[in-house]
């Protein structure tokens, strides 16, 4: 079936403007259904929960529905889902909650390819508790994380491994399931940053075998919010960082509670995916059909852009230049010989196309690849609501720069 792009784009009010959004890894456009849900909550039941009167009951029901819908995006795991204003804040909360159980000599593994959100908090809590941080470095030649590098770091003192599912610079998908098997064999736990992967494909925490997984809802077509899945064993190790009398359930890790209207509005994300799957044809799992169609469309878009970049001798794609969905998501970074990265988006801006340059809070990766001198990378991040016409508009803007 042909991907229903016109229908998809009609679901995102921000796409009605004559602007091309190719900076989606920084934050996607928001679904109209999410906007409507937020507004409806604020209009109809903007009150505190826990009371017996009607508006309070309706408010709690809408927030519960939003929580359940967002939890469904993690697949069918037996753990707990918690929420926060951002992935960075959630990871800081988790690190603070894990801190009391860390002992001197415990080891935490972080990677050279991760966003700082899944690195800095762990380094800080390790320093406070006398634990050691070990770094899983990228393979410089292959420009990515290789499992051999992880295996060499694991041992009897390893407590936690924190890794990315997909680099927000390279776009490369890491084999989380294989990593989980290595980590669990060493008796440790695995926590995964899925921020750069979650907008592009289904998450199944049980199939991946992870102990924790986090993503940013505002990069998955929702509001500025984040969600994390925590497996039962990891959750049991975390101390309460909320009020003493909230030492139960997800409240232990949600100081002040969740943002009611944003969580309530986010129920529309899961509904959108299910509705898209239904529009694609009959079958028992509409959401799986939606994700499969999204992946195929995004791979076509990625090949459109990568084909052009590969044809330009001055351009160097950072990471794997394949468009295969088995390898990458359509987050594509590159540098251009003789042209500093900061100057390229400025030349594209007059064409009404939004892209970015920089380190994207992955400084260790940019340094490992020797790209600081370029001013970082130029990053183009596509999602399923983008079109081939938009990619062609970008290519037309890039052509005189890279020729």
UniProtKB/TrEMBL annotation:
InterPro entries: Aminotrans_V_dom (IPR000192), Cys_dSase-rel (IPR011340), PyrdxlP-dep_Trfase (IPR015424), PyrdxlP-dep_Trfase_major (IPR015421), PyrdxlP-dep_Trfase_small (IPR015422)
Entry-linked SUPFAM superfamilies: PLP-dependent transferases
Domain Aminotransferase class V: 20-394
Pfam families per record: Aminotran_5
Keywords: Pyridoxal phosphate
Protein name, entry field: Cysteine desulfurase-like protein
Native source organism of the sequence: Nannocystis punicea
């Amino acid at each position: 079936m042909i991907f229903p792009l016109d229908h998809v784009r009609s679901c995102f009010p921000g796409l009605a403007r004559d602007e091309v959004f190719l900076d989606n890894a920084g934050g996607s456009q928001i679904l109209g259904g999410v906007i409507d849900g937020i507004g409806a909550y604020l209009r109809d039941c903007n009150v505190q929960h826990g009371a017996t009167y009607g508006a309070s009951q309706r408010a709690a029901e809408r927030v519960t529905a939003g929580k359940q819908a967002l939890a469904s995006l993690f697949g069918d795991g037996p753990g707990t889902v918690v929420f926060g204003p951002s992935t960075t804040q959630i990871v800081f909360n988790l690190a603070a909650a894990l801190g009391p159980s860390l002992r001197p000599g415990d080891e935490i593994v972080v990677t050279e390819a991760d966003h700082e959100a899944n690195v800095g908090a762990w380094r800080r809590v390790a320093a406070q508790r006398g634990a050691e941080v070990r770094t899983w470095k990228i393979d410089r030649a292959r420009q990515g994380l290789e499992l051999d590098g992880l295996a060499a770091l694991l041992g009897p003192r390893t407590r936690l491994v924190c890794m990315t599912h997909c680099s927000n610079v390279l776009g490369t998908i890491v084999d989380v399931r294989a990593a989980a098997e290595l980590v669990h064999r060493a008796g440790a736990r695995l926590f995964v940053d899925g921020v750069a992967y979650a907008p592009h494909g289904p998450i199944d925490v049980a199939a991946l075998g992870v102990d924790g997984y986090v993503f940013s809802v505002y990069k998955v077509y929702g509001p500025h919010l984040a969600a994390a899945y925590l497996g039962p064993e990891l959750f049991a190790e975390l101390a309460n960082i909320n009020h003493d009398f909230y030492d139960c359930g997800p409240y232990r890790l949600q100081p002040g509670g969740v943002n009611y209207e944003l969580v309530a509005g986010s129920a529309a994300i899961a509904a959108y995916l299910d509705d898209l799957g239904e529009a694609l044809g009959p079958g028992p799992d509409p959401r799986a059909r939606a994700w499969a169609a999204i992946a195929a469309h995004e791979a076509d878009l990625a090949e459109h852009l990568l084909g052009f970049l590969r044809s330009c001798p001055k351009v160097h794609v950072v990471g794997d230049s394949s468009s295969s969905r088995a390898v990458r998501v359509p987050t594509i970074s590159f540098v251009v010989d003789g042209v500093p990265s900061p100057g390229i988006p400025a030349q594209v801006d007059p064409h009404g196309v939004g892209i970015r340059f920089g380190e994207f809070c992955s400084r260790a990766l940019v340094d490992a690849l020797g790209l600081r001198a370029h001013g970082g990378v130029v990053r183009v991040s596509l999602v399923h609501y983008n079109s081939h016409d938009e990619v062609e508009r970008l290519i037309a803007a890039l052509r005189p720069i890279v020729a």
